[in-house]
Amino acid sequence: MIPTAAATRQDLSVGKCCTFDDPKQFISRPEKHLIFDGRYFQSFKYFNHIRLKIRELLKPKDQIFQKAECLLPERHRNDFIICPHIRRGDFQTDDFHQPTDPKFTRAATDFLVDYYRKSHPRVTVAVFGNDVKFVYEVFKDLLDTINLPRKYSVVLTPTLAPEIDLAFTRKFCDVTLITAPSSTFGWWLSYLSKEGSVTYYRNIQETQDKVANEMKEEDFYPPEWIKLRYDNVTGRIDTFF
């Protein structure tokens, strides 16, 4: 442990939320010990080099995994699982963030199901979120028992606790979809999800999300994540490949 008195404090990452303020800029400082004081540190570039260690430290306990398993019916547990994350709540009223949009969410989910069905015969969608009524309205035609056969199966996973959501994504989600582009919980669900999973996220520039003004996308979203764009007129989804 370094005594506080023996270290010099230096501000870092105190301005915009979602940018990388590289600590290496201070490498030539003469002090032996620097303690960085900051506010955000909301960039994977601060810690991606220890991602495996972070996954190990944040691995849910066995009893949490058991609770997560109860959210997915056994008949779907060997399916290819696509996991959209819904963020509404205070995002609808804070006049800053862009909440999940219903049209984008349904269009993006349909797009991903169609894409992954080419390589996986059984695809199921497991939806996370803090607005069950909203989720039901988005996927109503796939949840009502009177509409058979369904295009694909949808499972609602009510948010019981953050650690259960994290355990579920880590165990089951082959694909995650961030529908509210500045949702940090959606971000962490994806970052800590199943090994080898693929993450898609909405293009923040096509929304009214004001976080875009504080964000460098290349600092916030890992390069292997895939950005989706949505055409409000045609309802078409495309990737930025």
Structural write-up:
- This protein is of the alpha/beta class.
- It has a single domain, classed as Rossmann fold, CATH 3.40.50.
- Helices cover about 25% and strands about 20% of the residues.
- The chain has helices at about 50-55, 60-70, 100-115, 130-140, 140-145, 160-170, 185-190, 215-220; strands spanning about 10, 35, 80-85, 125-130, 155, 175-180, 200, 225-230, 235-240.
- A seven-stranded mixed beta sheet has the order 5-4-3-6-7-8-9, sandwiched between helices.
- The N and C termini lie far apart (about 45 Å).
- Pfam families: Glyco_transf_11.
- One of its GO terms (molecular function) is galactoside 2-alpha-L-fucosyltransferase activity.
Summarize the structure.
The chain has one domain (60-239): Rossmann fold (3-Layer(aba) Sandwich), CATH 3.40.50. Helices cover 27% and strands 18% of the residues.
